[in-house]
Structure formats: structure tokens, C-alpha cells
């Protein structure tokens, strides 16, 4: 990604920033309909196995060879739009049957970090997670060689 960044021109970077601003404006207008919160899963599927999201070779839209994390965009589909607009908090609300964390993403309108923090505090009080730890080494899981 660092090598790819060296190839990005100032004009291309500015165009991407403009696209992000345009997108963020559309997201901001959604909240004008009177919504307070949007609640989504943090990721689209269960926690990946260790090594599952290793970099793979691919090509970008211009046909250049790149390294990318295979499958990560599909897995992060709920998170990426609000990472771009900067309006979310993700909380480790539960644990799966195999001991891995399950996250919930809460999104609020621009400037409503107060609401996000209030709801997060209430959820932490109701479902405390500070003492939870994921089961890192489960004997039934096979850890791929590096």
C-alpha cells in the first residue's frame, strides 16, 4: 500500500477527497429525516481464522499488480461507509459460541458523539465487557503456518 501511495498524484488524491466529501454529504442528509441512531453488526461474518486475511496478489482497476487483503472489503462492508464519514462507535457486545467477540456498530449524526458515548455507556453498564477475553488458542482450531 505504501508503494501504491507513492504513485498517487496530488490531483488524484484531491479527486478522492472530493468523492469522500460528496459521499459524506449524502450520509449527512440521511440523518435529516429524523433518525437518531443506526445499529449494525461491526462485520458481516464471524471472526476470521488466524491467517485467513493474508495479503494476496491482485490487480487494481488500471491493471497494476497490487497486494490486497482478500475478502476484507466484504467483511467490513458495514464499517467502511461510516469510517469514511467518521460517525460510529463499535462495541464488543457479545461472544460467539467459540469464544470470539461479536461487535455492534452504532452510528449517529455528525456532531452527535455525545449520543454515541451515552448509548455506549448504557450498553457497557447492561452488558459489561471489560473482563471478557477472546479464546485465542482453541485446541479445535488449526493455526496456519506463517
Spell out the key features of this protein.
three-stranded antiparallel sheet; alpha+beta; 146 residues; flat; two-stranded antiparallel ribbon
Explain what you see:
By secondary structure, this protein is of the alpha+beta class. The protein has one domain. Helices cover 35% and strands 21% of the residues. The chain contains five helices and five strands. The chain has helices at residues 2-6, 10-31, 72-75, 80-85, 113-126; strands at 37-41, 55-59, 65-69, 88-95, 101-108. It has a three-stranded antiparallel beta sheet with strand order 1-5-4, covered by helices on one side. Strands 2-3 form a two-stranded antiparallel sheet. Strand 2 and strand 3 (65-69) form a beta hairpin. It is flat and about 50 Å long. The model has no long low-confidence stretch (mean pLDDT 79).
Distance between the termini: 20 Å
Shape: flat
What share of the residues lie within helices? 25-40%
Q: State the major sheet.
A: 3 strands, antiparallel
Radius of gyration: 19 Å
Strand percentage lies at: 15-25%
Taken together, the total number of domains comes to: 1
Structural class: alpha+beta
Summarize the helix and strand pattern as letters.
Answer: HHEEEHHEEH
Low-confidence parts, pLDDT < 50 over ≥5 residues? none
